[in-house]
Amino acid sequence: MRTLRPSAAVPAAAFLLSLGLPALAAQAPAAALPAGNAPSCVTVWEKVGTVTKTGYARNDCGYTLNLKIVWSHGTDGSCHTVRPGHTISSKVPRGIRGFDGANRC
């Protein structure tokens, strides 16, 4: 992987600022965020172990939702009724499956 020296990153940020793109200059490269059609008040995260990976979704909304964990390249988790403050999870074997967040169901 190629990394930029700090001295090389500063001129690039200055160039973006000169174009009137301050938001792009301030952004650091980030990993893709999990997608899904759950509302933004649902917090999602993934924990990867040595054999399995587990996707989580916590309902931080003020109302009850029906949610499921979404995985790429295979079957999604089952649909659960999730009250505010509660968390659901779905565990799959490590491999090509990717964590895609949570969907309403």
TrEMBL record:
Signal sequence segment: 1-25
Key words, A-Z: Alpha-amylase inhibitor, Signal
Organism domain of life: Bacteria
One example GO MF annotation: alpha-amylase inhibitor activity
InterPro entries tied to this protein: A-amylase_inhib, A-amylase_inhib_sf
Protein name: Alpha amylase inhibitor
